[in-house]
Amino acid sequence: MSSPPASPNPDDHTRRERIEQTIRDADRTRVALYAILLGLVGFYLAPLEAGLMTAFKTTDAFNRTVPFLPPVADGFTFEPWEIAFSEMSNALVNSLLLAVPATVLSAGLGSIAAYGLTTIDWKYQTALVALFVAGIFIPYQAVLVPLSRLYAIVNTQELLSFLWGLPMMHEHYASIINLIVTHVAYGIPITFLLFRSYYQTLSDEMIEAARLDGASVFSIYRNIVLPLSRPIFAVTLIYQFTQIWNDLLFALVILPSGGGAAAPVTIALNSLTGGIVESFNTQMAGAFVAALPTLLVYVLFGEQFAKGVAGET
Amino acid sequence: MQRLRDVLRRLSPRRGADSGDRELRADGSEQTDRLRGSSELRSDGGVATAEETPTETGRWQSLLSSDFVQSIPFWLPPFLLMGFFVYGAIGWNLVISLTDFEGLLLPEYTVSEFDLEMYRRALSDPSFWTAAQNTLVLLVAFTAVCLLFGLLLAILVDQEIRFENTLRTIYLLPMSLSFVVTAKFWAWMYNPQIGMINVTLRQLGLDFLTLQWISNPDTKLAAVIFALIWQFSGYAMVVYLAGLRAIPTAHYEAAKVDGASTAKMYWRVILPQLRASTMSAAVVLMVFALKAFDFLYVMFGNNPGPAADILATMMFREAFGSNNWAYGSAIAIVLFGMALAVVAPYLYSEYRRGEL
Asked: Do A18 and B160 count as a contact with CB atoms less than 8 A apart?
C-alpha cells in the first residue's frame, strides 16, 4: 500500500557526470524546460492570483479591470475582507472547535489500531486490516441517509443537557460533537493506513527484545512505539486537519439545514454572497479566509502533507 | 509412565527450537493420553483435579497474557467505532433502499415489504442513466488526464532541476484547498463576462473562443473536469515522482548507452516500471472523482442540470432535496457498487502482493 521509497540517492559520481553531460548537450532544452515549468507555475497559481487581486478591488473596479492585474488607486479596498471576516468569524471558531479534536482523536485511534494489528501477529489479522483499509474508499453518499437518521434518533443535545448550563458552553456545540464523532469514525481508516505503513518499517528486533525482557504489549506501545511515532503523527495530524477543515458534505447532512449556529467555514463560505448577487470580491476574500488555515499548514508543513498524500496510495 | 513424562516436561519447559515440528505432534498425542488417564484417575478418587487445575489456569493465564488478547484493547474500540459508522451504515442504507421510505414519514422496516422497487425505479429513470453516464465520463476522463499530466509533470520535475521543492510545493498546492474554495475560484474563472478565462481570450483577440463555460451544456462537464485536474494533477505528480526515484539510475544509464532516444527510453524502459504507481494513483484519483460532490454542489447547487449531474449529486438531491429517502439510498448503493468495482480488485492485488 505504500509508494516506493523516494530518491535512493544515486552516487555522486554518476550524478555529477549526468549534470555535466546535460550542461554540455542541452542548454537550449534546459531553457525550454524551465520555461515550461514556469508556465505550469502560472497555470496552478493563476486562479489564486486572480482571486487575491479581486479580493482587494471595489465592486466597480472588478467589473471594469482585468482580473489578474492588481487594483489601482481608487479601486483598492479592504472592504471585502472586512465583510468576509465578520460574516465568517463565528464559522472559523466552529471549524476550529471541530477540526482540532477530531484530528487528534482520529490520529490517536488510528495509531493504536495500527499498533494492535501490525506489530502483533495473529491469524485473521489480514481480514481486519482489509476492512479498515477498504473504509478509505467508501463513497460517503452510501452512508448519508443512515447518518441523518442516526442523528435524528440520537439527540446529543438532550443527552448532554447537563453541559449547556456550564459557562462557555452553548447548545449548538451538540451539533459540533456529532460532527466530531462522525469525522473521527470516517477518519480512522486513513489514519490507520498511514500508521500501519509506518509501523511496518519499524525494526522488529527492538520490539522483540523488549518482549523478551517481559515488557507488556501496553508498555511496548507506551515506551517504544509511541515515542518513535512522532514523524508519522505529524504527517497524519496535518493531513487529517486539512481533510476535516475542508469538508462540506458531512456538515450539510448532519447540521440542521443552513448550518445554524454550528456552521463550519465551508458552509459559511458557500452561503456567502456578499449581499449583492455575485459580488466576487467578497467571495474571493471569503475563500481566502476559509482556506487560510490549510494554506498556512501547507506552506509550513508541505513536506508532511506530501507524505500524507502519498501514503494514501 | 504418564506421570513421569509430565514431570519431566515440567522440569524442562523450554526445549530446543530445532525439534519444534516433531514436538508439536508429540505434545498433541500426549494430551489425549493424559486426558484419558485423568478420567481414569478421577474415578479413583479426585486426585486428577488437583493435578489438572494448575495446567488449566496456566493455559488460561497464558491466553490472557498472549499478545493477541493484549492487543484487543488497542484495535477493537477503533474498529467498533469505524465498523459501526462505515459498515453498519452501509448495511442500514441497503435496508432503507429496500423500503418505500419517503417524505416526512419514518422508515418502516417490515421485512415482508422489502422489495427492489427503488432499483427498478432507477433503471427506468432517464435522469439516473444520464447521471450514471456522467459519473463514468468524469471518472475515466478525469483519472486518465490527471495521470497523463501528472506523469509529464513528474518527468519534467525529475530532470535534476533547481528549485525542485518550491515547484513541487506549488504544483501540489491546490490539493490542500477545500472543494468549496476551489469551486468559488473556478466559478469566478469561468464567469462569461468578467471571468479570467474569457477576459484573457479577448485580450488575445480570440473572441470566438469565449464560451459560457459553466452554463453551456456542451462544455459544463469538461469545465468541471478541467478544474478538478487543476486541483489534483499535483497528486499524480507526487506519486509518479516517488516511482521514478525508485528506479535505479543504472536503468537510465543502460538505455543511454544503448543509444535510445529520451522518448524511447521513457516509453520502453521507465514507463513499464511505473505500473504500481499508476495503479495506486488511479484508484485514489477515482475515489477523489467520486467525492467531487462538494465541488459540483458549490458551483451549481443541488441540481447541476443533466449535463453535469453525477450520481453523487443526484443521490443528495433525491434524498435531502425531495425527501425521497429510499430512492436516494438505492442510488447510493449503485454508487457504492461502482466504487467497489474499482477498489476491490486493487485491494485484492495488493493483498496478493503482500502489501496490505
From this structure: yes
CA angle B311, B312, B313 (to 5 degrees): 95
pTM of the model: 0.81
B163: left (phi over 0), alpha (psi -120 to 50) or beta: left
Kindly state whether residues B213 and B329 are assigned to the same domain. yes
Q: Do A135 and B284 touch (CB under 8 A)?
A: no
Mean pLDDT, chain B, integer: 79
Do residue B12 and residue B160 come from a single domain? no
| Among the four given CATH numbers 1.10.3720.10, 3.40.50.300, 1.10.443.10, 1.20.272.10, the one describing domain A79-311 | 1.10.3720.10
* C-alpha cell recorded at residue B269: 524502459
Among A8, A148, A188, the residue with its CB nearest the CB of B245 is A8
Nearest alpha carbon to residue A37 among B246, B154, B145, B144: B154
Whether B196 contacts chain A with CB within 8 A: yes
Quickly tell me which residue has 499498533 as its cell.
Answer: A115
pLDDT tens for residues A165-224?
A: 777 777 788 889 999 999 999 999 999 988 988 888 887 888 888 888 888 888 888 988
Cβ contact A51–B188 (<8 Å): yes
Match 448550563 to its residue by C-alpha cell. Answer: A165
B203:A66 CB<8 A: yes
> From the centroid of its chain, how far is CA B79?
17
Instruction: Indicate yes or no: CB of B332 within 8 angstroms of CB of A145.
Output: yes
Looking at B41, B65, B89, the residue that finishes a domain is: B65
Q: Is B194 exposed, middle or buried (0-12, 13-18, 19+ CB in 10 A)?
A: middle
Least confident of B129-133, B152-156, B246-250: B246-250
Q: Is B80 on the interface with A (CB under 8 A)?
A: no
State how far the Cα of A93 lies from the Cα of B134, in Å rounded to an integer.
37
Residues B45 and B137 reside in one and the same domain: no
CATH 1.10.3720.10 in chain A: give the residue spans: 79-311
Same domain flag for B149 and B242: yes
**Do residues B171 and B41 share a domain?**
no
Give the SS3 label for residue A57: strand
Query: What residue numbers bound the domain in which B61 lies?
Result: 2-65
Nearest CB neighbour to A269, from listed B83, B181, B196? B181
Other CB atoms within 10 A of residue A275 CB: 10
Which of A220-234, B17-31, B262-276 bottoms out in mean pLDDT, i.e. has the lowest? B17-31
User: CA of A249: which chain B residue's CA is closest?
Assistant: B294
Q: What is the ipTM of this complex?
A: 0.83
Q: Is the Cβ pair B70, A120 closer than 8 Å?
A: yes
Closest Cβ opposite residue B96 in set A2, A110, A145: A145
**Taking phi first (over 0 means left), then psi (-120 to 50 degrees means alpha), and beta for anything else, what does residue A188 get?**
alpha
Which residues of chain B make contact with A41, given a CB cutoff of 8 A?
167, 170-171
Residue A60 has pLDDT above 90, yes or no: no
Is the CB of residue B282 less than 8 Å away from at least one CB of chain A?
no
Question: Cβ–Cβ of B156/A37 closer than 8 Å?
Answer: yes
Cβ within 8 Å, pair A143-B89: yes
A106: Cα separation from own chain's centroid: 12
Query: pLDDT tens across A233-274, in order?
Result: 988 998 899 999 999 999 999 888 767 788 899 988 888 875
B contact residues 319-348, partner A, Cβ 8 Å cutoff:
319-320, 325, 328-329, 331-333, 335-336, 338-339, 342-343, 347
